[in-house]
EngB-type G domain-containing protein (Physcomitrium patens), 202 residues
Amino acid sequence: ALIKSADFIKSSSKESECPHEGHPEFALVGRSNVGKSSLINALVHRKELAQTSKKPGKTQLINHYLINKTWYLVDLPGYGYAKAPTAIRTDWNEFTKGYFLKRQTLVSVLLLVDSSIEPQQIDLDCVGWLGRNKIPVTIVFTKCDRKKKKKNGGRKPEENIKDFLDRIKPLYAETPPWIMTSSETNQGKEELLRHIAQLRIL
Ligand code: GTP
Ligand code: MG
């Protein structure tokens, strides 16, 4: 699984504005600052295809990137950004949920979860909502390079991941596929690309 080309196609503010070519697509979601844009850049070997920033709330639209001219990687706004204006927070719910429910070509949501912190209710809520709405999800744990630190409660990524998977067990008959990644070390990059390739041909 290799990415030979990645082209930014367009930004949309609702599902009806999204590209109509019918390519299969994979949408990245997660809390603001979880590392969505960094992961896109790591996947495609480009530093600035998706804009990253230390300030959360940078990505505010549905951004389509065409990969190898055949499938889309979609960057969505982060959720749970407490400082975003209320109007923007409401919008996230409106258009992101609309996009998930309407988008016929969506193969799987790639839900990014920060492995350097303990399970967050908003992420558990998101997994629950996707499950109840029968939207396929792959859980992508980010920042797995982060060593345990006092400020993270002194817990290892593996401990946070195990807790997260335990907490979503009651929500699913079968635990969704999950992958450990790091945009710093490229851990999990190949595994994620293979997983995407496999789902595309199903
Ligand atoms: P929004 O667009 O604001 O929702 O954020 P985002 O999810 O796109 O996050 P972004 O990629 O901009 O990264 C946020 C911060 O986390 C940046 O300071 C990154 O350098 C850092 N970061 C992202 N991925 C990793 C990772 O794998 N490891 C480490 N250690 N830091 C990371
Ligand atoms: Mg971003």
